[in-house]
Amino acid sequence: MNKRQINCGILRQSRRSRVQGFMLLEVLVALLIFMVGSLGIVGLQAAMTKAQTGSKFRADASFLAQRLIGNMWSDRSGLTNYNAANCASHTRCNEWVAEVARALPNGAATVTVAALPDGTDPSTGLVVAADVTVTITWAPPNEEQRTYTTTSSVSSRSPT
Asked: Do the domain assignments include residue 125?
């Protein structure tokens, strides 16, 4: 074997090792790009789950408030029983407040019944027409408190 053949063999080996080193670098860069993409997808999924949970809580609060207003429509002669001060002693209202606490994290509710100017029946003294405001609050874990408020007019009188 002459000197030239030996030098060519050495050059071929050094070129091969450089090419193999470059391929290793390409693989490492590809893995880095894949891992960043995977972390992005996991972060996106976490944000989507948080938004979906928040949406469910808002829908539950809306449903619960509308259900209470429906109960009040069916119990128009006892509207004042739903007011904040009387709610604990009224079975339907008390059960509803307990359901809010079960359905929403740290859920609480207040109901305000404000009689309309001509909303009291003069013969019985009962409130028969009132503006009702239902406020529901909840606090998801590690987030600030959320509030849902709705107002409705409930009346046993026919519109004039």
From this structure: yes
> Which strands, in side-by-side order, build the sheet including 108-115?
108-115, 129-138, 146-155
Residue among 134, 136, 135, 146 nearest 54 (CA): 146
d(CA 29, CA 54): 38
Residue 160 lies in a domain: no
Global pTM reads 0.71
Spell out a b/e string for 7-36, using b for 16 or more CB atoms within 10 Å of the CB, else e.
eeeeeeeeeeeeeeeeeeeeeeeeeeeeee
Using a 10 angstrom Cβ sphere, with 0-12 exposed, 13-18 middle and 19 or more buried, the burial of residue 62 is middle
Quick one: DSSP state of residue 141? T
Residues of the chain with confidence (pLDDT) below 50: none
In one-letter notation, the amino acid at residue 100 is V
The residue range of the domain holding 104 is 3-155
Number of domains in the chain: 1
pLDDT of residue 77: 77
CA angle 41, 47, 51 (to 5 degrees): 140
